[in-house]
């Protein structure tokens, strides 16, 4: 990635910094059992993250991801089928996704994925991660002079420049978001505040790399699906043994 993009991480953190108030833990929104497939149950948590699955499951997983992190895209490709098609539908685990911003591209994508119906968040989320190679590849053709537009002027205009340069407008059109709607999203202060809340959660839990995971309140050393799946399997086995 270009040097200016790497250096922009500090500017992004400063832009989204919030007061370091003592965090207040609020319960997830209550929900009726959606039937046999808990993967259809999606709520927005108190800190603005998105959660799918059983909010009262004995196992709760929180993922911290960055849209520009190649390891996050790789993790999503490996983990999503196993979680969404097996453990989550049965109500065995709830999964919360929190965005960790590393640069202005992360912020731009987060605004686009957070805008709109929360029930469709994971459609948008997965689309950007699965297509990461395509839009990240465009960075090689964007010089530092062109990237300067990403750091100058009003914040919505910076995000418009990024969306234009990386062809995000075409990408979001696939789920029915017009360019006008995308631009309105970039100016949406409520969405921006939601993303700021997630950065406060990142600080609260002491997360500094992506992907990172918290399983049942414990920040894990694992940073990929093989490592995380071992932790999940071990905890499930321990709970089953304790129930015998």
Automatic annotation (TrEMBL):
Any GO MF annotation of the entry? oxidoreductase activity
Gene3D superfamilies for the chain:
1.10.40.110, Glutaredoxin
What keywords sit in the KW lines?
Answer: Disulfide bond, Oxidoreductase, Redox-active center, Signal
Record keyword tRNA-binding present: no
Against SUPFAM superfamilies, the record matches this protein to: Thioredoxin-like (SSF52833)
Q: Which InterPro entries match?
A: Thioredoxin-like_fold, Thioredoxin-like_sf
List the signal peptide residues: 1-21
Source domain of life is Bacteria
Residue span(s) of domain Thioredoxin-like fold: 47-232
Q: Name one Pfam family in it.
A: Thioredoxin_4
Q: Does the keyword ATP-binding apply?
A: no
What family name appears in the similarity comment? Belongs to the thioredoxin family. DsbA subfamily.
For this entry, the protein name equals Thioredoxin-like fold domain-containing protein
